[in-house]
Amino acid sequence: MPLFGAADCELATALLDRHPAKLFVLAGNGSLLYANPAFLLKFGRLVVASAGHGTPEPSPQLQAWWKHVQAQAAQIVAEGASEKTIAPLYLPDGTELAPTVKVFPVRLSTAPLLVGGLIADGDPCRDHVGVHGQGYEWYRRLLDLFPDAIVLVQKGRVVSANREAANLFGAANAEMLVGRSLWDFVHPDYDRSKLDQIRGSLERSEPVGGATVKCLRLDGKGVDVELRAAPSAGTGDEVAQVLLRNLSKQQQLEEQVRQSQKMEAVGKLAGGVAHDFNNMLTVINGHGCLLAEDGTLTEDQRQSVDQILQAGERAAGLTSQLLAFSRRQVLQPKVIDVNQVLQGMMQMLRTLAGDNIELLVRSCPGLGTIRVDPGQLEQVILNLAVNARDAMPEGGRIMIEPGNIDLGPQELGERQLDAAPGRYVQVVVADTGTGIDPGVLSHIFEPFFTTKPKGKGTGLGLSTVYGVVKQSGGLITVASEPGRGTTFTMYFPRIEGPVTSDHTEDHDVSKQRGTEIILVVEDEPAVRALVRDTLRSRGYRVLEANDGMEALLLVSQYRDAIDLLLTDIVMPQMGGRELAEHLRGQSPDLKVMFMSGYTDDEILKHGVVAARVEFLQKPFTPHALANRIRKVLDQPHGIQADLQGQTMEASP
Description:
Shape: elongated
Largest sheet: 5 strands, antiparallel
CATH superfamily of the largest domain: Histidine kinase-like ATPase, C-terminal domain
Strand order of the largest sheet: 2-1-7-6-3
Number of domains: 5
Structural class: alpha+beta
Mean pLDDT: 78
Radius of gyration: 39 Å
Number of helices: 20
CATH topology of the largest domain: Heat Shock Protein 90
CATH class of the largest domain: Alpha Beta
């Protein structure tokens, strides 16, 4: 099929007619002006059909493909565009219907703008696997299942790609990548010298191993990938197989591990500080309470004692926060109705919010019950309310609302919650404040992280919230946008059961008295002395020991039966758990109460179920000690659990 018929084109036409590649030339309207024999041999029916000759028509798919080629040619003429690559077309069984086509402008001085077309022999992907038909389809499906991006590159351009490659670069399908230069996806900020090294290796058919490259997706987002490449066997030196591994997931996992290690280290430090501090606070607050009971104090002396007690309570709150965010405190959970908890906090919340903030606390009829430490839940809500207030210096609204929610696999996935499907009670704390910047949002639960000015925050508030919620078996999420407020949502497993009745501390000393024999075992002398003096002042007979071994020796020499063992849990030589087991073996009816200011893993291994065997968290007041002692002594025999095989209600 001659090009124009001019004599001076005969030599060019003769050469093109013998070229193995399929070549053609289209006019600006898409009509075929020239096609060499290689093209006519494969697609001659398209030419004959378009000329109206009575031969079997090509398939509708092939005709549609050819119209697409003609449309692309017309677009090049209309827009004056550069070359385009048209992706291949495959039948469902993997058979190639139409190959990859390159169309490009042809500018001649004696003719209008034309469009040339070139179809190279063979599909590099198909040639590489050496199969066709169903075998080729099997190969492509296998590539689409591969978790990493795989592309075949010919002279720097993508000729084949799997599904993950499309996902990596933000394309709707793999065909959108075909024909594009692989280097177009390299981020402009990437080191050009390193890029030149990678390109040079591919051009020299040398393998590339483990190069980290910053790439640019089609949506403009950056992504780090690990690039590996090797020459594709059997396709010539110009084709390379390239594997691209998305490093963002790996980087996220590494960051989570680093964060977990940091939290664990800080948690251990906080737990150690809290242990020693709680012992000291037990002595300070305890003797402060005893001084407050002295009726001979002057008014100035009483005010000084009140200041000491207030400072001691604030310090105790700080140690409680340290233990909470490190999840090393012993919770004393109860079955509660969140509606009742919020109702009891109303006055405190209104005072905290101030006059320029609207406070909405809603109740939920038929709300399910949850099992948490009510004091810790109150602390969580107060911390979130304080943060909300501080985010609205010019006023706004705080909304606190509980509700029932059923979370199935789909709902858990939508909320990105790592939890088992089930029934939950959610507690939402939302504000209309300044919101949180995305760069800050990922750090807000970290200990000591704060955006408040120096001296305005400890950075423990939200880490405490996170620790309490997680330790209570719950989950917490946060959603925020700058200028559009922040919403914290907590999820607690819903349970069936009546609300636990609450008994307030009795300060009537006459109701805290007794004559029973109590063995006090504590390795901190000042704490032991305070406990001894408190109990003796209320009529009890007290024996004291420094540790478990000394206690066993004392019991062996003491003839009267001991009514109650009050012991610290972690002590040198013999801990409280082991001591209690020894004494219970000799006296099964012996009543036991544990106390501790530290709840690290060692305590969990040697602990008891807090709901069934009494546990007293340091620091405690003399009134709290006397109340709990009287409560345990008044229990009928057999109420306390067997110590064997029990574990404390706390999470490391």
